[in-house]
Design a protein that fits this description.
CATH topology of the largest domain: Alpha-Beta Plaits
CATH architecture of the largest domain: 2-Layer Sandwich
CATH superfamily of the largest domain: NusG, N-terminal domain
Strand order of the largest sheet: 9-13-12-11-10-14
Helix content: 10-25%
Shape: globular
Largest sheet: 6 strands, antiparallel
Length: 168
């Protein structure tokens, strides 16, 4: 990997500081992606749609890490860049692109516990065609699970079983 190669990295933030960190990163001209999901919250007198981070405590940056690492770590509320032995580890681009494709689609989706075991599938029809993930059954419906292995987080949406094929 060359020093100026641009990759995706996961950044951990202080609890409930994801949106603030994302804004500060954009102000420093650091490309970031904070996947959000909308929840209807009930307050005393009304219901309101509120956006929460899909992966609490995490957001993604797309940078040449050797050049921008210090800029990221200097942002208040950034805890660290995910890695091993003090070295940041990049996330495969297709994993981040898959989450982007799901978040920007019109399909409903929810956070889902990270799954290690299960059938690996590829969606062959519909707006998520080409994505690979895990298929699970929940109360008679099939759920497609997209996983980000490095941060052990996942997101789920309902799919028709006929729209997926098992990957061998």
């Amino acid at each position: 990997m060359s020093a100026s190669e641009v990759n995706w990295y996961a950044v951990t933030t202080r609890s409930r500081h994801e949106k603030v960190v994302a804004e500060q990163l954009w102000q420093k001209e650091i490309e970031c992606f904070l996947p959000l999901h909308e929840v209807i919250s009930k307050w005393k007198d009304r219901f309101k749609k509120v956006q929460f981070p899909l992966f609490p405590g995490y957001l993604f940056v797309h940078v040449p890490i050797q050049e921008r690492r210090l800029d990221i770590l200097k942002v208040p509320s950034v805890v660290r860049i995910i890695g091993f032995n003090g070295e940041p580890v990049s996330i495969p681009g297709p994993e981040v692109q898959a989450v982007k494709q799901l978040v920007f689609s019109t399909l409903p989706y929810d956070p889902y516990p990270y799954i290690v075991k299960g059938n690996r599938v590829e969606i062959v029809r519909g707006p998520l065609r080409g994505l690979q993930g895990t298929l699970v059954e929940k109360k008679g419906a099939f759920r497609f699970i997209l996983s980000i292995d490095l941060i052990q987080q996942a997101v789920a949406c309902e799919v028709d079983a006929c729209d997926v094929v098992k990957i061998r």
